[in-house]
Amino acid sequence: MAKINCEVTNCSHNKSGECYANCIDIVGSSAKKENDTSCGSFLDKHHYSELTNNTLSSGSCDCLKCTAETCRFNDNRLCNLDQIAVSGKRAEYYTQTECSSFQLRD
Ligand code: SF4
Ligand code: SF4
Questions:
Q1: Nearest 5°: phi and psi at 9?
Q2: What is the per-residue pLDDT for 58?
Q3: Of all atoms in ligand 2, which is nearest to the CA of residue 67?
Q4: Does the Cβ of 8 fall within 6 Å of ligand 1?
Q5: With 90 as the cut, is the pLDDT of residue 46 above it?
Q6: Mean of the pLDDT values across residues 22-40?
Q7: Which of 28, 56, 69, 80 has the fewest CB atoms below 10 angstroms from its CB?
Q8: Is the CB of residue 26 below 6 angstroms from any atom belonging to ligand 1?
Q9: Which protein residue's CA is at the shortest distance from atom 1 of ligand 1?
């Protein structure tokens, strides 16, 4: 099962809708909703080409750091979900991406 399903297919780490970065950083301190978060590891393929064959990585991404401590799934700046979804089709900047799995803590 992919840890990160990502619709940002123009990201260098994206392969068929899965993230293949070694580790990603979701950012969004004091986020109140999904679009207050972003994937800080986004790299536009136009500038960085494909990185999905990264030799340091054994497969799809399984390391998920996150500064959105207002999210109920955040545990000491790590995400405790088995799987998240990242959205932001055709993003040009990382701020145009977001973690769609964000849920505000009660
Ligand atoms: S936008 Fe983020 S989650 Fe999506 S493929 Fe790129 S680095 Fe991975
Ligand atoms: S679900 Fe929450 S804790 Fe997990 S990456 Fe998304 S915003 Fe961060």
A1: -75, -10
A2: 63
A3: 8
A4: yes
A5: no
A6: 97
A7: 56
A8: no
A9: 42
User: What is the distance in A from the centroid of ligand 1 to the CA of 76?
Assistant: 21
* DSSP result, the chain: --SEEE--TTBTTEETTEE--SSEEEE-TT--SGGG-EETT--BHHHH---TT-TT-SSS---EEE--TTBTTEETTEE--S-EEEE-TT-SSGGG-EETT--B--
Is the distance from the beta carbon of residue 66 to the nearest atom of ligand 1 less than 6 Å? no
Residue 49 pLDDT more than 70? yes
Task: State the burial class of residue 68 (Cβ atoms within 10 Å of its Cβ: 0-12, 13-18, 19+).
Answer: buried
The domain ranges of the chain are: 4-99
What is the pLDDT averaged over residues 74-102? Answer: 97
Ligand 2 pocket member 102 (CB < 6 A): yes
Residue 13 one-letter amino acid: H
